[in-house]
Amino acid sequence: MTSETGSQVVLVAALVAAGLVAGLFYAYACSVMPGLARGDDETFVTAMRGINVAIVNPVFLVTFLGAPLLAGVAALLDPGPRPWVIAGFVLLVAVVVVTGVVNIPLNNALDSGDDYAALRARFEAVWVRWNAVRALVSTAGFGCLVAAVLTRRG
C-alpha cells in the first residue's frame, strides 16, 4: 500500500466514522427523544438509564472516538485536502467535548434517586438541546470530510 493509498484509506475511514456518529445524534434528535417524550416520567428515566448503559460498548466507543482521531491522522498524512480535514477534526473534537462536559454528566445524574419527575425535569430539555448541537456539529464535521474526499488530488 502506498502512502497516498494509506492516507486515502484513513480519510475514508474518518468519513465513515463521522457519518455514523452524525447519524446517531440525528436519530436521537428526530426519533429517540421525541419518542421518549411521549412516555411518563418513570418510563423516560428508566429508558434513558438503559440507553446510557447500552451505548457504552466497544463498537460505539471506537466509532465515536475514532472519528476525530482518524480525521487528525488524515490531516497529518495528506496535505491535499488538509483545511477541510482540519475543520472536520475540530468539529468532531467539539462533539466529544460537548458530550463529556454536558451530556455524560446529565446521563450520570439520572442515576441519583427515584423522583422520576424531578430527574426528568433537570435532564430532558438541556440534554435534548445539547444533543441537537451535537447533531449539527457532527454533521458539519462529516460534511467537511466529504469535501476533503471530493477535493482530494488523485
Describe what you observe in this structure.
The chain is an all-alpha fold and 154 residues long. The mean pLDDT is 94. The chain is elongated. 86% of the residues lie in helices and 0% in strands. It has one domain (3-151). Helix 1 packs across helix 3, helix 1 (3-37) runs antiparallel to helix 5 (116-151) and helix 4 packs antiparallel against helix 5 (116-151). The two termini are 15 Å apart. It has helices spanning 3-37, 41-54, 58-77, 82-109, 116-151.
Question: What layout of secondary structure does this protein have?
Answer:
Layout: H1 3-37, H2 41-54, H3 58-77, H4 82-109, H5 116-151
Oligomer: single chain
Strand fraction equals: under 5%
Cα radius of gyration in angstroms: 18 Å
Which geometry do the CA atoms define?
elongated
Average the pLDDT over all residues and give the rounded result.
94
What count of helical segments does DSSP give? Answer: 5
Keywords: Membrane, Transmembrane, Transmembrane helix
InterPro entries: Anthrone_oxy
Pfam family, one: Anthrone_oxy
Descriptors for this entry?
single chain; 154 residues; mainly alpha; 5 helices; 0% strand; membrane; Anthrone_oxy; transmembrane
Structure, briefly:
Keywords: Membrane, Transmembrane, Transmembrane helix. With 154 residues, the chain is mostly helical. The protein has five helices and no strands.
